[in-house]
Amino acid sequence: MARSRSPRAAYGMINVMAETTIEAPNMQLTRTQLWSAMRLPLRLRIFETARRLGEASVTELAEAVGLNRTALYFHLRHLERAGLLISRSGEPTPGRRGKRPRYYKTAVQEIVFPVDNDSKRESQKAADFLRNWFTDSRLDIMDIKTPGGLAAKRIGLSWENFTDDEIGRIRAIYTEVEEIVRRARNRSNSTRKAPSANFHVGFVYTPIADGTMPNPSMQFKNTAAPKAKTAKVEVKPSKTQKVNAKAAKVDEAAATK
Question: Can you tell me the distance from the alpha carbon of 105 to that of 219, in angstroms, rounded to the nearest whole number?
């Protein structure tokens, strides 16, 4: 499946793992801190924007994510309280009555969400969290105004009975896609500027309960006929036509005398 223009521009890396704590430089992030701070995809996008910009002022971050400063401050406080961002005061700004600008930078480079698979409550939190991202994904998929329209999208939805060999091949393809995404992220990490994504890639494979019925094969084809190009033809009068037209004007002038 496949928006700095808006708060939807910067895509962060999300890993959900079965661990009890997250070890980061000089800190540990608990489950409670993470779930409360990261329940909104927008906050993860703000985090990712700050990570790629390095240390940035509130004004720079606001311009990058497309939010006003007041709205951005609200989310920055949640991220800082969770230990994902750290901030400092800058030097007083001339003309602003001595007010000091606030600068933010990320405290970690990657977010790993600890999930205890034996905990129904935590598994539900993870599902609720991912549901928000699937909503964003669905919006991108259904947006016919994206570059190239429907023809530029590749959407596959299948419920099938796969063999072990086929499952292994699907997993290998996913590993290859992950490697491509990793290289693209490393390339973006080498620049210190506001991130902007130009493509959305989604890949999901999951075991399902026995007895689930398969789906029909579905395809979307463009049935609109290609627009024919109309050539602009300019017809110029011949030399004889010009002489005859001039003679007609002379005769008309003589007749009116």
Answer: 45
The mean pLDDT of 202-218, rounded to a whole number, is 81
Q: State the first-to-last Cα distance of the chain, in angstroms, to the nearest integer.
A: 81
pLDDT at 30 over 80: no
Q: Which two tokens stand for residue 151?
A: 């023809």
Listed in sequence order, the DSSP H helices in 54-163 are 58-65, 69-81, 120-142
Which structural domains are found in the chain, ordered by start?
A: 14-123+144-189 (1.10.10.10)
**Residue 34 CB: number of other CB atoms within 10 A?**
20
Which range among 48-62, 79-93, 229-243 shows the weakest confidence by mean pLDDT?
229-243
Distances (CA, A) of 203 to 105, 124, 153, 154, 156: 30, 21, 13, 11, 10
- The pair phi, psi for residue 172, each rounded to 5°, is -65, -40
Q: 54 near 105, Cβ under 8 Å?
A: yes
**Backbone φ, ψ for residue 65 (5° rounding):** -100, -5
Across 6-95, the runs of DSSP E, i.e. the strands, are 14-17, 22-24, 27-29, 56-57, 85-89
